[in-house]
Specification:
heterodimer, A: mainly alpha, 6 helices, 74% helix, elongated, B: mainly alpha, 17 helices, 0% strand
């Protein structure tokens, strides 16, 4: 993937590289994926026959904290991309590191919530609320983890001088992914936590 | 408008710089070779699914027959449906996407050649994985629709359904990657002058189908995730005792399942929209209308899914909406039928085998379309639901529509693939045995269904008075089976000893016919300039294009490197998914490691030769 931006393809019809267009297409597909997960959560909302129920568990303030951290990681991503595009190697690595750190912070806080909910008796098998909640948010967390691994590889590649301003698009595409994962979380945060 | 054939241009039988041998096929990223592998694999699965169908037909030859056990019968009809849809009709269409689309738009390959190879290998391994279930006597047995709660671990305790949901999830990855690949290819890689509204209809329908793929596959993927979690980890998505809703499965399945129907049929519509004009020596009648009708079918196809669920009891308002939407979607389909007829009207028709299959599609698909309109009315469906009438309907549209279209494509593009014609004599045998076989098989099913014969039941009682229809169907099925053997014999015979074909043996108008048959591995020595919808039917334009496309490349074009990571990644994905069956979370997590490793190796491998 890292080398795709430097191929000898003729210029594209749209002026957008194949990789970027293909990735946008993939994100479109991901929207349907999360759309189905979120719809299922909404369809089953309030229909769990056994507790614990959302109102007994959710701590909006706690989730707001993790959400804020994830949102700020997008800012770090933007700065990291800007740094790569302008050939500022160490700044790029620093901010990609920050992205990973904040992703980790988000996962830590969310993991805390998970443990708390499990302590209250909510598991994937306990009710439709448990099943839909954990599979939806768990899928999102899997996306965050994949994003963190991706960022780590990019930082490594920047360090080795394989990614420079010339092929910064590789970082841009990873950024598209990261922002998408963020936006999905905003939707989840709103529909799952804020509107109960 | 002149449509002189181009037989005078002799083909370059050998391409420069192309390796042969098994290893070169395993590591290939060439869209033309991937297409051939897709086609042969799908044909193999066609035989597998065909044998399953014949066993079903032998069992149904007589009432109260005991040729196969009810358990085996469940496995056979489930695997027949799953195989024919996911391992035959879809991949065979993808074979044509692969071979034809880059050539029709003037590209040297698809946008992501390695991803393309990955799609193929995942399809192969996913198909083998699902069929391996037969070895363990545990083939999927809950029908291709896999309705909850039949698929729950309570009611399907064995591994049968595990093979099904895991196999389908693996295959979904191939389709998703294919959709992304072809959208990008078609949007981004057209030759200069090849505007969207100059693209051949087959490329257009590939484009629409690709959008359906990337939007429909994620929905079934999530449904399969729910099912998998229910079965493996004990979640309660479809468990009514815990407030889960089995009807949710039906919604998710058909939100995918109905667009899937158009995923099957639109490629066939695309094929015959290219074939009919060629053999009528007339441009396609109402080109923009046919394009828009195809797009409209794609859109409305998203709003008709609940017509599969009229017996669920969704209420009069929901039912009325889906009745109306289903009737509306018949309109763009009907428009296409009339466009094809108008294209032939007054043309100088040549009834080659490709043309016969195309005309056959228009006729036979229309029969299925008419019973489809009957099914649009909810009250009628209450009578016909789960009866053989429905079986008759969807076989008419899928065999008489999708498969006939793909076989038209086979006869049409075979000379381009191999540089040789398929035998027209055998082709006509193939066509007429198909025509007789499929009508004899599926037409009597309408009656059997109306007299009350239910589908998916291993036998029927003599009092139902449907024996005669079943006997006709069984005879028809064997004739249809014979037609498949004729086709395969024809392919084997003609690939080596068929009559040699030139660059444009049919006098066709599109860009794929401007290059030698078989093409160079880089397709176009230089990328031509396109000025119209039928570039090769335009004398001056044809001369300009042929001057470019029939020449030698000034320097060898830079083509992507071969790679063995696609096959390894596909194998590791299949392994990882297969490990889900163990039900132990850490084994499943371990399965992700080889996938991650292959992804990394893939990412760090240069896609193109050094220096480019």
């Amino acid at each position: 993937m890292a080398h795709a931006a430097t191929t000898a393809h003729p210029p594209t019809n749209t002026g957008i590289s194949n990789w970027k267009l293909g990735f946008w297409t993939f994100i479109g597909s991901e929207c349907l994926f999360f759309g189905t997960l979120i719809s299922t959560y909404m369809v089953y909302k309030g229909k769990a026959v056994t507790g614990p129920y959302p109102s007994e568990l959710f701590d909006v303030l706690h989730t707001t904290m993790s959400t804020t951290i994830l949102l700020f990681s997008s800012l770090a991503m933007v700065i990291a991309l800007h740094a790569v595009q302008h050939g500022k190697k160490s700044r790029a690595i620093l901010f990609l590191g920050l992205v990973i750190l904040m992703g980790g912070g988000f996962l830590y806080l969310e993991g805390e919530s998970y443990l708390k909910y499990i302590g209250y008796g909510l598991t994937i098998t306990s009710s439709t609320f448990g099943s839909t909640y954990f599979v939806l948010t768990g899928t999102h967390k899997l996306h965050v983890i994949i994003g963190m691994i991706w960022m780590a590889i990019l930082a490594l590649q920047i360090g080795r001088g394989k990614i420079t301003a010339r092929n910064a698009e590789t970082v841009e595409i990873a950024g598209l992914y990261w922002h998408f994962v963020d936006i999905i979380w905003i939707v989840i945060f709103t529909l799952v936590y804020l509107i109960q | 408008m002149s449509s002189v054939g181009l037989e005078t241009h002799t083909a370059h039988a050998t391409s420069h710089g192309e390796e042969t041998g098994l290893w070169s096929w395993i590591t290939t990223v060439d869209h033309k070779r991937i297409a051939v592998m897709y086609f042969l694999t799908a044909t193999f699965f066609f035989l597998v699914g065909g044998v399953e169908a014949l066993l079903i037909r032998i069992q149904l030859l007589r009432p109260e027959n005991s040729f196969i056990t009810p358990e085996m019968y469940n496995q056979l009809f489930t695997m027949h449906g799953t195989t024919m849809i996911f391992l035959v009709a879809m991949p065979m269409a993808v074979a044509f996407f692969n071979f034809v689309v880059p050539l029709q738009i003037g590209a040297r390959d698809v946008a992501f050649p390695r991803l393309n190879a990955l799609s193929y290998w995942i399809f192969l391994f996913g198909g083998l994985y699902m069929n391996a279930s037969f070895i363990f006597g545990a083939a999927p047995n809950a029908s291709w629709t896999g309705y909850a709660t039949l698929t729950s671990s309570t009611y399907s305790p064995g591994h049968n359904v595990d093979f099904w949901f895991i196999g389908l999830s693996i295959l979904g990855i191939a389709s998703l990657a294919g959709g992304v690949n072809f959208i990008t290819t078609i949007v981004n890689m057209r030759a200069p002058g090849m505007k969207m509204m100059r693209m051949p209809l087959f490329t257009w329908m590939t484009f629409v189908t690709s959008f359906l793929l990337i939007t429909a596959i994620p929905v079934i993927a999530v449904a399969l995730v729910f099912l998998g979690f229910d079965r493996v980890f004990g979640t309660v998505f479809f468990d009514p005792t815990m407030g889960g809703d089995p009807v949710l499965w039906q919604h998710l399945f058909w939100i995918f399942g109905h667009p899937e129907v158009y995923i099957l049929i639109l490629p066939a519509f695309g094929v015959i929209s290219d074939v009919i004009p060629t053999f009528s020596k007339k441009p396609l009648f109402g080109y923009p209308i046919v394009v828009y009708a195809g797009i409209l079918i794609g859109f409305i196809g998203w709003g008709v899914w609940s017509h599969h669920m009229f017996t669920v009891g969704l209420g009069p308002i929901a039912d009325s909406f889906f009745v109306a939407a289903t009737m509306i979607i018949a309109i763009p389909t009907g428009v296409k039928i009339f466009n094809w007829i108008a294209t032939m009207w007054g043309g100088s028709l040549r009834f080659t085998t490709a043309m016969l299959f195309s005309v056959g599609l228009v006729a036979v698909f229309t029969v299925g379309g008419l019973s489809g309109i009957m099914h649009a009315a909810a009250p009628i469906v209450l009578q016909q639901h789960d009866s053989y009438f429905v079986v008759a309907h969807f076989h008419y549209v899928i065999v008489g529509g999708a498969m006939m279209g793909l076989w038209a494509g086979l006869y049409y593009w075979f000379p381009k693939v191999t540089g040789r014609f398929l035998s027209e004599t055998l082709g006509k045998w193939h066509f007429w045995t198909t025509m007789v076989g499929l009508n004899l098989t599926f037409f009597p099913m309408h009656f059997a269904g109306m007299f009350g014969m239910p589908r998916r039941i291993y036998t029927y009682s003599a009092e139902l008075n449907v024996e005669i229809y079943n006997q006709l169907s069984t005879v028809g099925a064997f004739i249809f089976g014979l037609s498949a053997l004729i086709m395969i014999y024809n392919i084997m015979k003609s690939a080596r000893g068929g009559e040699r074909a030139g660059a444009n043996p049919w006098g066709a108008p599109h860009l794929e016919w401007s290059i030698p048959s078989p093409p160079h591995h880089y397709n176009f020595p230089e990328v031509p300039l396109v000025k119209s919808r039928e570039p090769l039917w335009n004398a001056s334009e044809r001369e300009e294009i042929l001057a470019v496309t029939m020449g030698e490349a000034k320097e060898e074009p830079v083509m992507p490197n071969p790679s063995y990571w696609p096959i390894l990644l596909a194998a590791s994905i299949t392994l990882a998914w297969g490990l889900v069956m163990t039900g132990t979370w850490w084994i499943i997590a371990l399965g992700a490691l080889p996938v991650l490793f292959c992804v990394l190796m893939w990412a760090f491998e240069p896609a193109f030769p050094e220096g480019h």
